[in-house]
Amino acid sequence: MKKYLNPFNPNFLFFLAIIVLGAYYTYPVDLTPAQKSAYINSYLTTIYLTSGGIAIGIILGFFLAFLKSLDFKPLSFVIDEYVDIIRGTPVLLQLMIFAFVILTAFSDNFYAAVIALGLNSSAYVAEIVRGGINSVDKGQMEAARAMGLTYPIAMREIIFPQAIKNILPALVNEFITLFKETSVVGLIGIFDLTMQSKSLQAVLFSPEPILFAGVVYYANVKFFSFLAKLLEKRLNKND
User: First-to-last CA distance in the chain?
Assistant: First the structure.
């Protein structure tokens, strides 16, 4: 952990330099207090969308992977089709279907976006987790069952903890992708960071809001990657 927090670490210094220089040259200084508040709210909207999508993606993705591991063919067929449909259609189309077809009763498309992003993520998480489960030696499950553990308990206590170590980098990549995919929700009327930046660019007649949004996205992705490295190091410390 000290390695990543060391202020003299070259990687940290390079990251800090990019953030400082990027913010200095791209921050739109002509923003009014109301515009600054709207900018902050748009960033929080992006974080809320990402958090909600991740929560749905993790819970549903792990559940689908668990059901797929039961090797019940009709159920596996349904899950495979669900995954193929989600992965085979653009996330923007999924957002529009939920916002303008399924959840038209809601005046705020925020909830439609959270559900659509979460379901989209769940398909990828399910495949990632399934790969992680398959990477665990089958003898682990056989030994757990021989000890009298039920299948669900064996999966929760024996298989999933080992699988998570193997799939953590892939999960982090999926969540970073989800964070960046929130940038398309502006097309269904949600003022996220990207949409707000585009709006400010039109008002100020300057590219600075859009460029600054790029700096914010970059800083957040680096922060998420930093947390993932700390978690991965902690999970592997006893190996």
Answer: 17
Token pair of 32 as six digits: 């009014």
Distance between CA 61 and CA 175 in Å, rounded? Answer: 12
Q: Would you tell me how many other CB atoms lie within 10 Å of the CB of residue 22?
A: 17
**For residue 206, which phi and psi values (nearest 5 degrees)?**
-145, 145
Q: What is the DSSP letter of 159?
A: I
What tens-digit pLDDT sequence spans the chain (239 residues)?
445 555 567 777 887 888 888 888 888 888 889 988 999 999 999 999 999 999 999 999 999 988 888 878 899 899 999 999 999 999 999 999 999 999 888 878 999 999 999 999 999 999 998 888 888 777 777 787 788 778 778 887 788 777 878 888 888 888 999 999 999 999 998 999 999 999 888 888 888 889 999 999 999 998 888 888 887 777 666 55
